[in-house]
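Collaborator request, handled under Task 6.
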Amino acid sequence: MTAAMVEHDQAPLGGEWEYLLQTWRELDVPEGWRAEIDEGQIALVPPPHGHHNAIAAQVQRHLYRSLPEDLEIFQTLGVHIPDVERLYIPDLVVMPEILVLERDPENNDPYEAAEAELVVEITSKGNARTDRTRKLWAYAHAPVPLYLLIDRFDARGPMVTLYSDPQNGTYKHADVTPFGRPLTLPAPFHATLPTEKFPR
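Structure tokens returned to the collaborator:
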């Protein structure tokens, strides 16, 4: 669902992006929904299916087992990719906890995606293509060092892909693992993520 689209004649002097960001700040989003900015418009993303939430919970549990002390896992945290004018709310974001704790409680601005160590997106039927293409492209431009895509709707069967080594807006490496096999996460996590209990 699209909440707002910028027309060139309605954007203020600050520019289309600033207009979209200000609109995003002022939105009253229904509980459980998320508002994201992508390709010049604000889109409302509905609450995910229970299987989606179960996968997020399993990933979070396993990450905590080896998470460095200065990092934290956040849900519903807005991340901004200024170079490509995108704002997403990933399923999970791992970033330094101090960045969130030191933020003024009245400041609702998104965090810089470049400050994240890991971003996790779990596909739903309605957003799978976006997660595979536009978000992949945007996170590489941030650059986010690690992008974990958990794709229950991959045409080859449910897959987990860890994208790494972002350079010039492209991830140079991808580890693809089908559900049922473990996936190794590199530093700073040094963790093995089991996938056999991920619901399909």
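The cover message to the collaborator said: "The CA atoms of residues 149 and 194 lie 14 Å apart. Residues 1-9 have pLDDT under 50 and may be disordered. Please let us know whether this matches your experimental observations."
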